[in-house]
Amino acid sequence: MCLSLDSVKFAIIILSSMDRKNFLKKALSGAGLIAAGSAVAAVIKNDIDELRPIDLNKQVGFNHHPGHATVMNDNTVLHKAQTRGRADYGWLKTNYSFSFANYYNPDRMNFGALRVLNDDFIAAGMGFNTHPHDNMEIITIPLEGVIAHKDSMGNAGTITAGEVQVMSAGTGIQHSEFNHLKDKDLRLFQIWVFPNKANVTPRYDQIKLPLEKKNELNQILSPSPDDAGVWIHQDAWFHLGTFDQGHTVNYELKRPATHGVYAFIVEGDFTINGQALNKRDGYGLWKLNELTITADSDESRLLLLEVPMM
Length: 310
Known about the structure:
The chain has helices at about 5-10, 10-15, 20-30, 40, 60-65, and strands at about 70, 75-80, 85-90, 90-95, 115-120, 125-135, 135-145, 145-150, 155-160, 165-170, 175-180, 185-195, 205-210, 220, 230, 235-245, 250, 260-265, 270, 275, 280-285, 290-295, 300-310. By secondary structure, the chain is mainly beta. The chain has one domain: Jelly Rolls. The radius of gyration is 18 Å and the shape is globular.
């Protein structure tokens, strides 16, 4: 679960200088973008980790959802909910929008600077032991329940639904995360974004989100500490919104020339720029200035992630 930019510099450099097939193989075997070697791997105590070796001959990703292709056009990519990678470890049930751990799909490595969007269910009292990260911006959004967090920077506490947590892993951190409750399951999104600066001083932040304004896109993350929500070392903006059926809102990209937007349907149904979407669908769009978003059912909830397309 570690990104080392010391050894691989930055994602765009790797992708431009390395054959894509070799890049993917190295990334999944622990020698490239998403691994940092045996010294780090030895630290990890759980068996659900991106540093675990993968037998590429088994084509793991395609076995997760045979017959479902990524739908890609000139400036859009559609990931239907049922085509995501899946894993069930008993105490952890998870869906992967992008390749992660034992899920590998060469069409789903990232969306620009967005590397990971995991939809996790963690059983009561269970979680991840202490493990390392570096050079990654890690955002956690609890949906139901309470997360217990502890890290090597001295932070220890809980994160509840209605809050958002961010860690800039930078030069390196270790942390653990568990379901704090012994009698209730935990649901959360964990999101990883490539940073625009390598080897920053590790940083932790956690905020309670303001009361959400219905039928609006509420900003929860930006590049600026003076802006609404948490901030990260990347030109990225995240928004959450809950909408009544039939309500339409427009979203103007902050950086239309270089950015894209990954729309993730948390609940309900939407139509975005003419594309019908349902619960847990993901839809990436780029080379455009604006999105037109219409809720097709009541209490529909949406997460918008604007990121550089690298």
